[in-house]
Amino acid sequence: MKIIDSKIPDVKIIEPAVFGDERGFFIETWNQQTFTDAGLDIEFVQDNHSRSGQGILRGLHYQMEQTQGKLVHVITGKVYDVAVDMRKSSDTFGQSVGIELSDQNHRMLWVPPGFAHGFYVMSEMADFVYKCTDLYAPQHERSLLWNDPALKIEWPLLDGVKTQLSTKDIAGTPLASADTF
Predict the structure, then answer these.
(1) How many CA atoms lie within 13 A of 42 on its CB side?
(2) For the chain, what is the largest distance between any 2 Cα atoms, rounded to a whole number of angstroms?
(3) CA 156, CA 146: separation in Å to the nearest integer?
């Protein structure tokens, strides 16, 4: 398993070893010792699985209390995954990392606490799974406006495919007035 720094060093791109043959493949998606050896002492308390159709954009979500770190990957399909630094004291505040995650590249992304997170489905359908470091707390959840020009996120929106968002995400808060850490 390779753990790679992204342009925001706290966000990590993980490339697991894939062992495959004509029967299929095997991937180890989580190993406490491997992550600890890489300086990521993480404890997970909740696993989630989301299925979404093409053109659906979920996010950008974060929790002000019970902040969640997330280890995310796609088991079916392809998404563009984004993490935005919401830590006001950080040199990378307001900056983002965007990466394609798919069932073909098997990449994962570590999104630490203090980041907003979201993804856009590029394939016909995608199954997206994530491990969280704290429990979901809807009363503390915030939604950062996904298309805020201040974020400079270059979403790879598909031509001819309507982008679908939840009511909460349509009403997301721009970075300039968002709650931060």
Answers:
(1) 27
(2) 53
(3) 13
Known active-site residue 61: yes
Name, in order, each residue with C-beta under 8 angstroms of 15's C-beta and a sequence gap of 6 or more.
1, 2, 4, 106, 107, 108
Q: Which domains does the chain have, with CATH numbers?
A: 2-169 (2.60.120.10)
Catalytic residue (one of 49, 61, 106, 136): 61
Residue labelled with tokens 């298309």 = 147
Specify the pTM.
0.95
In the chain, pLDDT over 90 holds for what percent of residues?
94
- The question of whether 49 is a catalytic residue gets the answer no
Among 27-31, 133-137, 168-172, which is the least confidently predicted range? 27-31
Catalytic hit among 80, 130, 136, 140: 130
pLDDT in tens, 58-87: 999 999 999 999 999 999 999 999 999 999
